[in-house]
């Protein structure tokens, strides 16, 4: 099994990159929407290889924790590699780990755009499986703070307007948390790109 890959990014697609290693281009499925990949730059990816009758697929992650979560997601019923990747495109490790450890599927679905049924399924099936790998403190993202009710409502409003949940959360957190919902939404709309 190929467990890591280091090479140059030669192509950037939607949730995939081509990494050239000694003249051989490997197609690797990975979350590209976060803007972490730049064509021409060297990357090191932690990989998971999926062998099927008709395909040999590689899934890669810049962070080892993402690979760990990817493998955990594969243990959840009805979640295959492509679904697991899609989940990691919508919710980062910090959000997933915190929601699972705190048994809070609603927070996960609200912050990530993952459906309520899927979020509940993830939290119930992975409960207890992340405790040995992480602590709640280690999962805290530098920007992950307790949201006020106005901030949560502002994020919901932005998601309703068609904005990406993670992007909406990032922009709302940049504003004064003591503002009311309407003021927060108006402030964010001045800075956030139109979806």
Compute the number of strand runs: 5
Largest sheet: 5 strands, mixed, barrel
Count of domains: 3
- Residue share in β-strands: 15-25%
Q: Which fold name corresponds to the CATH topology of the largest domain?
A: DNA polymerase, domain 1
Instruction: Quickly count the helices.
Output: 9
CATH structural architecture of the largest domain: Orthogonal Bundle
Mean pLDDT: 83
Low-confidence segments, given as residue ranges, are: 135-145
SSE blueprint:
Blueprint lengths: L3 E10 L2 E6 L2 E6 L12 E10 L4 E6 L2 H10 L7 H10 L2 H9 L3 H8 L3 H11 L9 H4 L9 H12 L4 H10 L6 H9 L6
What are the salient characteristics of this protein?
195 residues; alpha+beta; OB fold (Dihydrolipoamide Acetyltransferase, E2P); DNA polymerase, domain 1; Helicase, Ruva Protein, domain 3; 3 domains; 5-stranded mixed barrel; 9 helices; 43% helix; 19% strand
Write a brief structural summary:
The chain is of the alpha+beta class and 195 residues long.
């Amino acid at each position: 099994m190929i467990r890591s890959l280091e090479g140059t990014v030669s192509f950037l697609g939607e949730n995939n990159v081509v990494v050239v290693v000694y003249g051989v281009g490997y197609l690797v499925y990975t979350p590209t929407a976060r803007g972490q990949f730049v064509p021409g730059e060297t990357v090191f990816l932690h990989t998971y290889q999926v062998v099927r009758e008709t395909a040999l697929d590689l899934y890669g992650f810049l962070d080892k924790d993402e690979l760990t979560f990817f493998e955990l997601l594969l243990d959840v019923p009805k979640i295959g590699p492509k679904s697991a990747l899609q989940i990691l495109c919508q919710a980062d490790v910090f959000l997933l780990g915190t929601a699972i450890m705190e048994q809070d599927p609603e927070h996960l679905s609200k912050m990530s755009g993952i459906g309520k049924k899927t979020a509940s399924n993830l939290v119930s099936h992975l409960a207890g499986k992340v405790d040995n790998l992480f602590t709640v403190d280690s999962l805290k993202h530098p920007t992950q703070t307790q949201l006020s009710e106005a901030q949560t409502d502002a994020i919901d409003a932005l998601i309703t307007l068609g904005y990406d949940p993670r992007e909406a959360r990032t922009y709302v957190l940049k504003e004064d948390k003591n503002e009311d919902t309407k003021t927060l939404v108006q402030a964010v709309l001045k800075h956030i790109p139109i979806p």
